From TrEMBL:
Residues 1-20 form the signal peptide. It comes from the Eukaryota. Keywords: Signal. SUPFAM superfamilies: Variant surface glycoprotein (N-terminal domain). This is Variant surface glycoprotein 1967. The keyword Signal applies. It comes from Trypanosoma brucei.
Amino acid sequence: MNVIFLVASAVLLASAPAAADDATGEGGFSMQALGKGCKISEDLKHNPSVLLTELQRKLAILDEHRQLQDLLEATTNCTTGFQEAKEALAKILLQDERQLLNDYQAVAEAVLKAASAGAYWAGGMDEFVATTKFLTTGDDGPSEVICLAKERGGAKTATGLKHTDAMDGTPVSGCKPRLPTTTSKKPAEILQDSTLSAATDVSKIYTLVATQAKCPLTKVGSGNYHKASSGITATGFALGSITMTAQNSNAAPTSQSLGLKAKTNGVYDGKENTALADALSLARSAQQALSGIKLKLSETLTDDSFDNNKNEQTIIQAMYPTKNAAADFPQGLPAEAKPRYDN
């Protein structure tokens, strides 16, 4: 039998060469190993509240935009000078407003997709852990059924998290089947590299079977699961993040991982075409979209804004209304235009 965890979005592939104590290889799943996936689940369940808080914070930019509009209108009504500057600011505000509306539309879509994909995979992972816990009839003893073992991967099953035991304070506490409605977490605390790296380092998730402490989810043998050419030869858990495939003999798994790829181009990604891969990718996209929302006029009014804005055609056209910004200033505003810009 071959156990492969494709906890997909940052893919962990590693080998576990140890043979089972019993040739039937019907041990449970290591709570220590699954806990690394549960930390990802916990983050994904907090992410909707984190994204909502960030979106609300970004929406406050509209208030800043309206205040600038009111200030510009008051300046126009009370003064007769600085006409070029006022026209430039009015055009920038209009351009900002259009861009903000486009950005909010894109961000709302990205946030909804990230929240739904993350909660969807987390629910699948939580349900799998809950199932292994439900099937664990005792916390110790060789005659008990143990599917959620307290031992590390590769160790012999001896104790389990009993179905009546609390998950609080255990490695799998992140898989408690509840979706938080609020959170104190910040964006930088969600899906940190340390969390994904820890999952990538997992190379053994399966415990060795004791004489009687077998798990029905990993049953092998003629007429049962996971034996080639007899019974079910492949199963999947946690929305495909965990897959088990039969070998030609009733052997312990020879390859075990949480299914994340090594860090590539600065990010961890999951196994292709899996729900976790979608969740992680969409979470990144939502954060990137949120970080892109800003009020351009705030940058225009900073002390070093000339270098930042010398290629902005809206500003150039407002400063030189009789010229063609693109044709007459292909390299942007020249240095000698800075005094005019500052005024």
